[in-house]
Every structure is written in C-alpha cells, then in structure tokens.
Amino acid sequence: MPLLHIEGLTHYFGGLKAVSDFNLSLEEGEVVGLIGPNGAGKTTVFNLITGVYRPNRGRIRFGGKDLVGMASCDIVSMGIARTFQTIRLFKELSVLDNVRIGHFSQARYNVVHALFRARSFYREEERIRDKAYELLETFNLARYADSPAKALPYGEQRRLEIARALASNPEVLLLDEPAAGMNPHEIDRLLETIAWLKDRFSLTILLIEHQMRVVMGICERILVLDFGETIAEGTPGEIQTNPRVLEAYLGKEAS
Amino acid sequence: MMIESRRAPLLVLGTILRTRQTVLLVIVGLALSFFLERSGFVSSYILQILMYVGINIILTLSLNLVNGYMGEFSVGHAGFMAVGAYTASIITVWLFRNQAGALVFPIATLGAGIAAAATSIIVAIPSFRTRGDYLAIVTLAFNMIVKSLLENIDALGGPRGFLGMNRLTSLASVYAWCAITIYIVRNFVYSNFGRAVLSIREDEVASNLVSVNTRQTKVLVFVVAAFFAGVAGALFAHLVQFINPRTFSIQKSTDILVMVYLGGIGSIFGSILGATVYTVLLELLRPLGVWRWVLGPVMLVILMIGRPTGIMGLKEFAGFVPIEERARKKKEGTAVAAASH
User: Rounded to an integer, what distance in angstroms lies between the CA atom of residue A147 and that of residue B337?
Assistant: First the structure.
C-alpha cells in the first residue's frame, strides 16, 4: 500500500485551473521529483497536500486517512512536513526556538501545566530542548542556537528550515525548491544532505525543483507538470528524452 | 548531550534558589504595601496613584500578550475591563450585600476575570477566522457594544453608573494581583505556547505548517489577556467605588495601547515601565487640564514613527526570564560573532 496516495486532485483559482487531475502514489522510502515550468502548479500541489488550500476535487490519502478538509497543523502533526520556496523561518527568533516550535505538537503538557510550572512541564521542556539540540547538531547548526535565524548565511537558513521541518517527526518530507538560489558547490552539498537525510530519518521525499541537475541526481521517479496537467512521468532518463517535456520547457520545434 | 544532562541538577538548584528569591521579593513587597497603607507614611493621594499604576500594569501586560507577543491588533481592552468591573461589583454589592467584605473580594475578582474571559471567547472565535486588521475592527465594535449595552441596562444604573461598592481594593491586593499577572504571563510566554505565539507574530502560515495549532493558540492568548483585563476592572471598580459606562470607552482602550507601545511590545519589563511612566506622567501633567489628554495620542504617533517597538521593544529584563532559558542566553554573543564570519 502506498504511503501517500493522491487521486484526481483538481484545484481552481477562480476560473484558472491550477492543478488538474493530479495523481501520485508515493511508496515508502521513495524520492520523487515534481518538475515543470513556472506556474505549472507544483507549489499548489504542496499547498493542497498540506491543507493550505482545500482541493475542489480529489482525494489525498495518507496512512489510511483522507487529508482533505483537515487543518494544516493536524496534517503536519500526522507526519507530512514541508519547506518553502522562499525561506519562511521565524527570522527574529533564535535558531533553537525555530526548531523548538517545530516540536509544538509533541509537547505532552497542557496550558495549565505551563502556567503553574508543573513537573511535567520541566520534564517535557528538557526533552524538547535536547531533541532540538540533537537536530541542530545533526545539521551542524548547534553553534548558532542562540542567534536569531536571520543572522545565518543563506545556505544555513535553508538547512535550518529542513531541520525545523524534521522536528515534527515526519514520514513524508515535501521540499519546495531546496536548491533555489544556491551555487553549484552548495547544491552538491545539498544533494549529499538529502540522500543522507533520507536514510537517517527514514523519509519519503517529494521534491519540487527547477534545476535539472538536482532532480536527475537524486530522484528515482519524476512527474512533469505543465499548466496544471501531468504531461509525463518516468525515470530521469525517460524524462530527459520525452518530447512533450522538451516542448514544455523549450517550446515547440518549428516544422 | 553530555553537557545537557550534567546541567540538569544545576538547573533544578537554580530554579529553587530563584523561586526563593522571587517568593522573598513578593513577601517583602506585600509587607511594604501593608506598611505604606497603614502607617500614613505617604498621603492617600500617592497611595491612589500607586494603585492606578498597579492596575495599569495588569492591563498593559495582558494587552501586550495579544498586541505585542502575538502581533495582532486588539483595540477594545477596556471592554473586557468593563465586564470585569461590573461583574465584580454585582458580586460584592448585590450577591453579598457588601457584608462579607474583604473575604469575598478575591472571589469577586476571580469571578470578574472568568466573566471577561468567557466574553472574550465569544469575540475571539468569529474574529480569528478572519485575519489581520479585522480583529481591530471587531474589538473596536466590541468595546462600543459593551459601552452602549451598559448604558441601556437600567438595573445597572444605565449611563448614571453603578455605585455602592466598598473600598475593598488595597495596595496589597493590587500588588498581589500584579505579581500573579507577571508570574502567569512569564510562565505562558516561556513555554511551548509562548513560542507558538511568537511564531504567529513572525509568520502565521509557516507556523501552522510546522504543526502549531494557530487558531487554538490565538484564542488561548485572547482568553488569558481578557481574564486579566477583567481582574483589573474589578480592582478598579473597588478602588474608585463608582463606575459608569463612559469610564470604559475607546479612550480607556487607547490609553492601554499607548502604555503597551510606550513600554515596548513583547516585554514584561516594558509593560511595567510603560504603565508606570504613563500613569505618573499623566498625574504630573494635571495642571495642563484637558490638554493632558492630547499627550497620549501624540506620544503614540511619535513612538510609531521613531521607535515602533517601544522603549524595551522585544527585549526582556533578565530577571523575568526563567533560569532554564537564561542559561543559554550568555552564549549569544559568541554565536552571533561566529555567524557573521
């Protein structure tokens, strides 16, 4: 049984069909790429999966549950985490707090415990702090723990975003253009990180990317979107030679 | 993780020591309040101003939760204060016919807080479905509705107001409620929920997408803030012994806003500072007559242009930061230096 199963997902913005009849089955442990020109509807797919928008049609099943209509925070708590196309860290807050906020749904104390400083509060806070530090150390960010997130260099901010996403203990990680704005050297490092993450946290990854080098490097399977339609699906090799994909990216050959 | 586990016993020790310090501070403060009140060391005028300062600290700190820490814009805090003031007065005057006196007062104050909190749920749930500026409009309307409701309920004195309360508010009770407010707000801010509140201020959409239940958190903050506004209302009513709907107009709400933004958003110490400076300043400017009421709005305009986050904006006096959070703050200097390389 696939971990994440999307069937006939369709979404309109007014009269504009942003995503049309999108189907995807993610098996556990897969790395799947979602590519396509600007405005193809890739980020909309992520927004539909994570409950930012409610699809007009279609079903999204994750671990036997239908996600359509659920609140974003519940979907994320269930095990689908994501990053953003443009970095959306909590800029003024410390690096540590950014990751601790990612642990929100895992704190096992309620507001009364917090207000009156019950023992469970201290125990849980200590646990969350340790786990957050562990994540920061994994990403080599622990030395920045108390600096505001905005003080980090760009590449590190991207990594912090991934660390924050992992804090909610996801099974599926959705990466929205993780290599955006990176230089070739940083991209190489990112590819290593993703491959290593996948094993270390036993993740299933769905990834949006513009840069062919990235998708070709790590994806086992690729879906190509254009104007909301899925125009191709296959292995990186197949996609590279698919005439419809070339057409979408480069335009039709004059005949 | 070695360092973490080694620090744990130290932390516990530190917390106990600091708790003792805090308890000591509260006891000394209470004793001092009793002394000032009984000894006649200071005039009753000064006493009255001290109590206003305390009540304003409670109001400012509670509104700071919504406007400062969470970054929403609520402008009807006086409405919740009114609910508290009338509730407490009804309890002491009607329910207990002014007889049980001092013993009933804490219960009445608590009841006032609960009534205000309950009211806030009714306001919060529909208004947090929308975003941003709508909360300002909804709370503004709420403030007006409360005022006109009170003006039209004859049983509560209508526009003439409600009187008959005994002077149950004392400097000690104001001090005690101030301490409780500071303690609760601090505990809230430095917790999982407090961090969630800060993340809502930073980026609400992202916050929701990293598992924070933003809607629930927002309602929670609103309820806590309203509770303390209600408490402040109860203390106020039993200090001046006469309340009327006009006391709780938009003017009052604006005053609280000025104190929040003057002292500094997202700061406990800032709220204490803002409330104290503004209250004392208004008293000192009494000779100016009506003109002193120009001060508040003018200050607000200047502040918004010059230093939009207020005097203490987003910074906290170390004494209000729990020790387990403070231990790591010291490293900040080195870490930032490292980040800039």
Answer: 9
- The beta-carbon neighbor of A72 closest among B195, B199, B209 is B209
Instruction: Give the H or E element holding residue A233.
Output: strand A229-234
| Sheet containing A4-13, strands listed edge to edge, beginning at the edge strand earlier in sequence | A16-26, A4-13, A57-62, A65-66
How far away is chain B from the Cα of A247, in angstroms, using its nearest Cα? 35
Whole-angstrom Cα distance, residue A194 to residue A33? 13
B residues 133-192 lying closer than 8 A (beta carbon) to A? 184, 187-188, 191-192
Task: Collect all residues of chain B within an 8 Å Cβ-Cβ radius of residue A146.
Answer: 328-329, 331-332, 335-336
The Cα B93–Cα B105 span in angstroms is 11
Higher pLDDT, B209 or A186: B209
Of B192, B205, B329, the CB nearest to A114: B192
Helix (H) / strand (E) containing A26 = strand A16-26
What percent of chain A stands above pLDDT 70? 99
B54 to chain A, minimum CA–CA distance in Å? 21
Q: Please state the pTM of the whole predicted model.
A: 0.90
Q: Which two tokens stand for residue A250?
A: 């480069």
Q: Are A175 and A199 in contact (CB under 8 A)?
A: no
| Model confidence pLDDT, tens digit, residues B31-81 | 999 888 888 788 989 999 999 999 999 999 999 999 999 999 999 999 999
Given strand A80-82, what is the order of strands in its sheet?
A: A80-82, A172-176, A204-208, A31-35, A221-226, A229-234
Torsion (CA) A159, A164, A167, A171 in degrees, nearest 10 = -70
Q: Which residues have CB under 8 Å from B126's CB, separation 6+? A: B138
Chain A residues touching B187 at Cβ < 8 A = 114-117
Is 50 exceeded by the pLDDT of residue A59?
Answer: yes
